[in-house]
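Standup notes, structure subgroup. Blocker cleared on the RFL input:
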Amino acid sequence: MRTQIGIIGAGPAGLFLAHLLHRVGIGAINLESRSRADVESTIRAGVLEHWVVELMNELGIGERMMAEAHFHTGITLQWNGARHHLDIEGLTNGKRVAVYPQHEVLKDLIAARLSHGGEIVFDVGDTAIRGIDTQTPAIAFRRDRTGDLETLHCDYVIGADGFHGPGRQAIPRGHRTEYQKVYPFGWLGILTEAPLSWHELIYANQGDGFALLSTRSPDVQRMYIQCDPTDDIAAWSDARIWEQLHARLGTSDGWALTEGRIFQKGIIPLRSFVCEPMQYGRLFLAGDAAHIVPPTGAKGLNLAVADVMVLSRALGARYARNSQEGLDRYSEVCLRRIWKGERFSWFMTTMLHRNHDESDFERRIHFADLDLIRTLDAAARSVAENYVGLPFDA
Ligand code: RFL
Ligand code: PHB
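Run returned:
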């Protein structure tokens, strides 16, 4: 098999890239280790930055999103029983975010890609990257996990294979530096059959720490609470989860969180991670393969799409004008945005969680940060601009 761009992964990074390349006439094939059904049903991110919504529309894949997403003009911050509405639209000259689940984005990307004649090979096994320091790189893989070994020959290999994929490991150890922070807390996330309790997302730091009230549809709500990342989910009965949600989201003005049947629950660890550089020879990393953020800033998917915007422009220039400059600068350009995303995600995480390793002094500082956002326009604007997505050349 041969294509111009061999992409490992059919997550947000890999699929947006295939669409962006198609738009400039460059061929690509995605190799994905999971099944289509699995990719289309895994619950992950929820929030799309303003420009990602616009990009979906430009690519002609925004129709279902425009009909089904919740568009939010603000978020609510809550601490010590009081709520503060952050007017994102007012602070950013009219920008909004969309709450539209990642797996719905992936369904739209996959359906459109296949209808354009694009190729996505699901269920591949034994993916192995070859010859990235030569002019003729390739990806070896097996169809249906155990089929004969096949080779996808290509001009460039893209590691859009998430945090655990082989892409990053293909950069020799001595050629990459990894920066990491592991947080002493995780998130317990639930899906519940309940109506909306509040008109926008609530990010709270109250009682035993963080809680997030998000949504999926008028009848299904997504909620998270901070927990010990080593907790066994079996230790969290539904009653205990509701008790903590009420304690962390409760107010004194009579508002009440509406409970429902919990039909999905799980615990994820929180980490920050960056690999520099994000390229080696003819291999380029994009998305979670190169960087991870804790979900508190809702940045992970959005940073993945930002990477492939930069990469598709660089590859476009390479094929149209034989210009190598964009590819040479790919990592440097992406990392400027990524480190700001890392900073914002770390800031939101630190400010909104209760860290038992920290002193009461530091906890007071986090409340002061929240109060600064409530009272100082410049602080509020900074959070709002980061939340909707920074301008590209910032
Ligand atoms: P993905 O989505 O992990 O996709 C990588 C794909 O590569 C495949 N793969 C392989 N394929 C072939 N051969 C191999 N050897 C392979 N190894 C792996 C995998 O099966 C997979 O399909 O990475 P990508 O594309 O970089 O996208 C990143 C995002 O998925 C991630 O950053 C977000 O989900 C993070 N995130 C959020 N991001 C946001 O922008 N807004 C949010 O509101 C938000 N909330 C979240 C989140 C992540 C969460 N979890 C579960 C970590 C909330 C949560 C709870
Ligand atoms: C979600 O709805 O899953 C979600 C929303 C906002 C975040 C993280 C996750 O910051």
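Discussed briefly. The CA atoms of residues 191 and 264 lie 5 Å apart.
Next: hand off to the docking folks.
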